[in-house]
Design goal:
The chain is built from 14 helices and 7 strands. With 334 residues, the chain is an alpha/beta fold. The chain folds into 3 domains: 20-179, Rossmann fold (3-Layer(aba) Sandwich); 185-263, Orthogonal Bundle (Helicase, Ruva Protein, domain 3); 267-332, Arc Repressor Mutant, subunit A (Orthogonal Bundle), CATH 1.10.10.10. Helix 5 links the parallel strand 3 and strand 4. The protein binds a DNA duplex (22 and 22 nucleotides) through helix 3 and helix 14.
DNA sequence: CCTCCACTGGAAGATCGGGAAG
DNA sequence: CTTCCCGATCTTCCAGTGGAGG
């Protein structure tokens, strides 16, 4: 049933993206000066998850590479590299300039200096999940570095700007802002159909089932593609010759828990204990939570550290917090 | 109204872990 | 081997917030 599993990977960038023309054109025009050897304008892409921001950024930069002979590019995910050091490291990595940099012995200042010294070809950097950066000042440093072309990606525009100080916010105002809206069902279906043409045997999924997937995904292409992939796998595993409604039903929930499971695996032991306690309760107040945690764990961290863990887990969308101060409760995300 | 106190999150400093230098 | 140094992690301290209960 599955011909090519690659097209269902979350980081797959299609050769031809056909459902985001406006956004692609906008971004291309922002980057166009680079093709003429001039500095471009930084870009800021924002919109809900699964709306193609990352995909379009990578696709457009790839097209630019075809036009410009000497061009360096790098993709940095700030979720995975949220510290100042890691982001700078990844950026220098894109220039093959890290052979003598080691976390332990190289101060971050040296990384900044080295980046400032860079005078090679123009360097396009995609900073994905830029709102996850702990040290936003780094954005300022990057913006004033010669030869860098920056593409920032974040989910919520307003929230992102609210977290910046005035100086940085006004500097960021100069970015070309490109908004990504949720996909309509028709567009989601068109996207799915592209992937199906490449990835699945012909005729294994009906129009009706496609509609169902698009409906469940609620505008999120990542969820739609994930659901399709899991549904195909389930159908294949059960020996069916085509994807049936029941395959989709189990795929929807499995696709969601699959993502969650991956995140839980990334937690430390202490964090996982906290997560388990929260999932065992409908809602739990901080005091009880900390007590339960100290009971289960040998050598417990302090309350302050636990608050950091909880914040992190909320960021990962594993738990939610409700209420403030005294009324605070923690709830597991279903 | 006021006081108490559980809770939050910022700031500053201590500690950990591990590569480099001696 | 030891010593030095760094970022990351963790603790300590604390000001601020707002609900509970006189």
């Amino acid at each position: 049933m599955i011909r090519d599993a690659r097209v269902f990977q979350t980081d797959f960038v299609p050769n031809d993206v056909v459902h985001r023309d406006t956004e692609i054109n906008h971004l291309s025009s922002v980057l166009q000066p680079i093709a003429d050897g001039d500095p471009g304008t930084p870009a800021f892409l924002h919109g809900p998850s699964g709306t193609g921001k990352t995909c379009i950024a990578q696709y457009t930069v790839e097209k630019l590479r075809e036009q410009v002979i000497s061009l360096n590019t790098q993709y940095v995910n700030c979720w995975e590299n949220h510290s100042r050091f890691k982001v700078l490291y990844r950026i220098l990595e894109g220039l093959d300039n890290t052979f003598d940099i080691h976390r332990q012995s190289t101060p971050t200042d040296v990384l900044i200096d080295r980046l400032h010294e860079y005078d090679g070809p123009r360097y396009v950097i995609i900073l994905d999940e830029a709102d996850q950066l702990t040290d936003k000042e780094l954005l300022y440093e990057l913006l004033r570095t010669q030869n860098l072309e920056l593409i920032f990606i974040a989910n919520e525009e307003i929230k992102f700007f609210a977290e910046l100080n005035d100086r940085l916010a006004s500097r960021m105002q100069t970015c070309a802002r490109i908004k990504f809206d949720s996909y309509s069902d028709e567009k989601l279906i068109a996207i799915l159909r592209d992937r199906i043409d490449w990835g699945l045997e012909p005729g294994v999924i009906s129009e009706e089932q496609l509609n169902e997937i698009a409906d469940q995904a609620a505008g999120d292409a990542r969820v739609a593609i994930g659901t399709l992939r899991v549904a195909a796998r389930i159908a294949d595993g059960s020996g069916a010759s085509e994807i049936k409604p029941e395959h989709i039903q189990s795929a929807v929930s499995e696709a969601k828990t699959e993502i969650q499971q991956k995140t839980v695996e990334k937690l430390t032991d202490d964090q996982r204990v906290l997560y388990e306690i929260i999932t065992e309760h409908n809602a739990i107040c901080p005091g009880d939570l900390y007590e339960a945690y100290t009971d289960r764990v040998e050598d417990a961290r302090t309350k302050r550290m636990v608050r950091n863990y909880l914040q992190k887990m909320e960021h990962y969308n594993l738990i939610k917090s409700r209420g403030e101060n005294r009324g605070r409760e923690y709830i597991a995300v279903p």
